[in-house]
């Protein structure tokens, strides 16, 4: 796919901001209609039988053909009204009837064209609703603009050239069809294949020429039907103007109209009677508004343009230059342009601005309403508590991805988990240097869970096959919520294990134990195997760690209670152990002894300690404290006593150095804090 092809594809995304005032919605979005938040299906591709999508390419061609007929009707209607009399043998009479037949067909076809709902932006394909909407809006005007008033003129005027003014005036209802031209220009202004400045200028010039054409025709009609032809604006200069050819009279009328519009003044052609003066007054007042409209638009084009469309076009141009300068592959170029166009499209919905401006509680309620039914049906979260789902849903962000867009890349760092709301993706793996599709995922499925939960690079790439809405959940938020819910964490890990076993392994191969990915087939779907034993061991280890954490918490709680009880007891005298290792307790005659930690030193003297510090001693320092089976002691009065007590506790070692958990060496007994972990270094090792 070339870069120029990608440019041509941009027209499908550069659409008008859903102009809902007509049954003809603007845009080149084709079948890639943007789904709503939380949509279960893609409404753009599934319509009822005999219902036509307004974005169908064939229907777009039909609309373009009708625009050409509208331009013809806009010119011929005022011209016939002023200069021609109807005759059944005229070629224009036959052409008008053929044009009316095409618009009659379009009226019938409109009853089978789906429309975008004004509030939900979803396609409505129910025939009854389509008919009610059309009948209550533009049906009457479309019928009136299609009625063959030319035939009625011939029927009721008996071919009299001077009659039928009323029917001719009704035939001017064909100008109602000009609304299609307005919709066309609105689409062209968003199409980057056309220069915005010249598109806008073409629109202004077309409006000006149409006003000049209509004013010239109407002013000539007034002169043609005035009783005294010599007292008219054209008869005063040429009394026999009716004998002139139709072309000469039409050119003279255009000349008067342009002179009046440009306010160059009246010289040879000016109003001669009250009718013409009254028409000139209204025409000049209209010119004031038209001139203001043209000047305002030209100022906007020269100074401001239109900021949003201009920024979009500048972004696209910058992306094109960036791609050429860096020689990006065509596929990457297509993805960049598609992302920019889809971002431009979604900005018109202003979903992010609306949600971000709301309080957190309201955003949570909206997210719960939109995405909770989707998340609770995801296989990874089957069996977890509603509390976990309620915490997960507000952390998810909805993103849109255009077709053929990479969501994650193979071997990418695991940062996010994704859930498909609408659309579909394909799973792609690099096998022997070639991309191979190893599976597909549709709405309700998730991907990226293997890399996030197993802590490994993503085992495969994921690429959209159609426009998709995907929920993104960051790995950090997911792991924090799972750690706060240990029971649900075990369920999630077990679900992952069961899913991998059920699919014969779906994810990643440990490249340290296997030379490469082992592609297996399960139900006609190629899936990449993963080391199931490692995952089972991880689940079991997680359960063991949870039990150990609970036991540790209970031990800490009991120690804290014991410390608090001892601090509330009266002061006791501590006597160190004697040489023979025997323990005895000498009581202070004034203080009763209630502690079993009393002993005597070698000299039999009493040593008093003002506070009781409890520390945990270890033989050596290792990487983790969870696997160290330390001994809880009360800190003696000197380092020598501490080293001797520690040596006796660990079987007669001669310790001379000790460090704390921060690798700081203990030089004084006073720096030891209550509850510290001390690590004694064996000098004999």
Question: How is this structure best described in words?
Answer:
This protein has 685 residues and is an alpha+beta fold. Among the domains are: 46-180, no CATH class; 363-501, Jelly Rolls (Sandwich); 614-681, Ubiquitin-like (UB roll) (Roll), CATH 3.10.20. It contains 21 helices and 16 strands. It has helices at residues 3-9, 57-83, 91-110, 127-135, 139-144, 149-156, 165-171, 179-190, 196-224, 246-261, 274-304, 307-326, 330-347, 351-356, 360-375, 386-392, 449-454, 475-484, 486-502, 532-568, 639-649; strands spanning 115-116, 123-124, 397-401, 406-408, 416-422, 424-431, 434-442, 446-447, 461-464, 468-474, 519-522, 525-528, 614-618, 631-634, 655-659, 677-682. The strands form five sheets. A four-stranded antiparallel beta sheet has the order 3-10-5-8. The protein has a four-stranded antiparallel beta sheet with strand order 4-9-6-7, with no helix packed on it. Strand 11 (519-522) and strand 12 form a beta hairpin. Helix 2 (57-83) runs parallel beside helix 9. The longest helix has 37 residues, at 532-568.
């Amino acid at each position: 796919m070339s870069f120029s092809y990608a440019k041509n594809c941009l027209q499908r995304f550069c659409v008008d901001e859903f102009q809902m005032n007509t049954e003809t919605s603007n845009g080149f979005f084709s079948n890639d209609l943007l789904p709503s938040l939380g949509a279960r299906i893609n409404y753009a591709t599934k319509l009822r039988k005999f219902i036509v999508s307004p974005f169908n390419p064939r229907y777009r061609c039909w609309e373009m053909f009708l625009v050409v007929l509208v331009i013809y009707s806009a010119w011929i209607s005022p011209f016939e009204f002023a200069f021609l009399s109807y005759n059944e043998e005229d070629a224009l009479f036959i052409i008008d009837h053929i044009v009316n037949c095409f618009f009659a067909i379009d009226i019938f076809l409109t009853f089978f064209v789906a429309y975008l709902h004004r509030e939900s932006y979803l396609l409505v394909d129910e025939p009854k609703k389509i008919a009610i909407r059309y009948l209550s809006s533009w049906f009457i005007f479309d019928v009136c603009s299609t009625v063959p008033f030319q035939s009625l003129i011939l029927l009721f005027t008996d071919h009299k050239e001077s009659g039928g003014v009323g029917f001719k005036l009704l035939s001017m209802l064909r100008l109602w069809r000009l609304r299609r031209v307005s919709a066309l220009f609105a689409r062209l202004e968003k199409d980057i294949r056309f220069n915005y400045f010249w598109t806008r200028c073409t629109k202004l010039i077309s409006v000006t020429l149409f006003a000049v054409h209509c004013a010239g025709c109407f002013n000539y009609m007034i002169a043609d039907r005035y009783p005294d032809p010599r007292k008219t604006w054209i008869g005063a200069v040429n009394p026999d103007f009716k004998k002139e050819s139709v072309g000469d009279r039409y050119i003279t009328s255009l000349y008067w109209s342009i002179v009046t519009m440009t306010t160059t003044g009246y010289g040879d052609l000016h109003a001669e009677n009250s009718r013409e003066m009254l028409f000139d007054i209204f025409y000049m007042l209209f010119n004031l508004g038209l001139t203001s409209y043209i000047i305002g638009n030209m100022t906007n084009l020269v100074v401001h343009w239109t900021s949003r469309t201009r920024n979009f076009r500048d972004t696209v141009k910058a992306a094109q230059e960036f791609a050429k300068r860096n020689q990006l592959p065509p596929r990457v170029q297509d993805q960049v342009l598609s992302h920019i166009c889809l971002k431009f499209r979604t900005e018109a919905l202003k979903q992010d601005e609306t949600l971000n401006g709301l309080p957190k509680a309201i955003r949570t309620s909206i997210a719960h309403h939109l995405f909770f039914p989707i998340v609770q049906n995801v296989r990874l979260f089957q069996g977890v508590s509603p509390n976990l789902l309620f915490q997960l849903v507000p952390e998810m962000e909805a993103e849109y991805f255009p077709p053929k867009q990479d969501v994650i890349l193979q071997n990418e760092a695991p940062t996010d988990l994704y859930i498909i709301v609408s659309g579909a993706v394909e799973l792609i793996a690099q096998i022997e240097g070639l991309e191979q599709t190893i599976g597909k995922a549709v709405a309700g499925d998730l991907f990226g869970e293997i890399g996030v939960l197993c802590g490994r690079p993503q085992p495969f790439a994921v690429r959209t096959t159609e426009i998709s809405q995907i929920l993104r959940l960051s790995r950090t938020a997911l792991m924090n919520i799972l750690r706060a819910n240990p029971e649900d964490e075990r369920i999630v890990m077990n679900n992952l294990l069961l899913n991998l076993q059920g699919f014969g392994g779906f994810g990643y191969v440990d490249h340290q134990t296997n030379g490469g990915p082992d592609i297996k087939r399960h139900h006609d779907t190629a899936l990449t195997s993963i080391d199931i034993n490692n995952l089972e061991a991880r689940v079991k280890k997680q359960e063991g760690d949870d039990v150990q954490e609970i036991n540790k918490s209970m031990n800490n709680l009991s120690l804290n209670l014991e410390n608090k009880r001892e601090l509330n007891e009266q002061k006791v005298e501590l006597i160190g152990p004697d040489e023979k290792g025997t323990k005895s307790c000498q009581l202070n005659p004034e203080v009763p002894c209630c502690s079993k930690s009393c002993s005597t030193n070698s000299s039999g003297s009493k040593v008093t300690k003002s506070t009781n510090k409890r520390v945990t001693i270890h033989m050596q320092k290792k990487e983790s404290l969870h696997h160290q089976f330390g001994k809880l002691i009360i800190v003696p009065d000197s380092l020598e006593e501490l080293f001797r007590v520690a040596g006796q506790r660990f079987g007669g070692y001669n310790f001379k150095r000790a460090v704390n958990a921060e690798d700081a060496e203990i030089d004084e007994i006073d720096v030891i804090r209550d509850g510290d972990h001390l690590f004694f270094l064996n000098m004999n090792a």
